[in-house]
Amino acid sequence: MKRTIAIVALGAALALAGNANAAEHEVQMLNKGEKGTMVFQPDFVKAEVGDTIRFVPTDKGHNVESIKGMLPDGVQPFKGKFGKEVVVTVDKEGVYGVKCSPHYAMGMVALIEVGQPPNAEQAAAVKHPGKAGKTFAELFGQVVVSN
After folding, report:
1. Average pLDDT value for residue range 53-59
2. Domains of the chain
3. N or C end of the chain: smaller count of CB under 10 Å?
4. Please, are residues 35 and 106 in contact by the beta-carbon 8 Å criterion?
5. Using one digit for the tens of pLDDT, what is the confidence trace for 71-123?
6. Does residue 42 have a cis peptide bond before it, meaning omega lies within 30 degrees of 0?
7. Pairwise CA distance, residues 46 & 24, whole Å
8. Nearest Cα residue to 44 out of 139, 141, 144
9. Strands 24-33 and 52-57, bridge-based pairing
10. Phi, psi values for residue 134, rounded to 5°
11. How many secondary structure helices (H) and strands (E) does the chain include?
12. In whole angstroms, what is the distance from residue 62 CA to residue 98 CA?
């Protein structure tokens, strides 16, 4: 019995230690930033599995939403409310594409790279309206894919 308790305690300690190493990345949703108007800043985040991404609105007219076809397999889509902070934990390797719904065509998008992204090619093939396509082309230029 003591051995079982010790094993359970060790497992819990290891699980907590793994979470202790997780980083938090903050992304601001801005009307005007370093790259122009209606932007996420930064618009590219390099994260590790278990990290959290905190999307912080600076105006009530912004939200964050995942983009169909731009999430790793098995990751549930998400959509935040307007003017509300959203925290997303990235639990799988891959690229995560996000948008601000009302400013999507204006290029208000961001890309999160987690570990070695197995879905990078598939996500890069997704079509986008207006300036979003150009912005994503630039962002995918920063993704590191190993063969």
Report:
1. 96
2. 23-140 (2.60.40.420)
3. C
4. no
5. 999 999 999 999 999 999 999 999 999 999 999 999 999 999 999 999 999 99
6. yes
7. 11
8. 139
9. parallel
10. -65, -40
11. 3, 8
12. 12
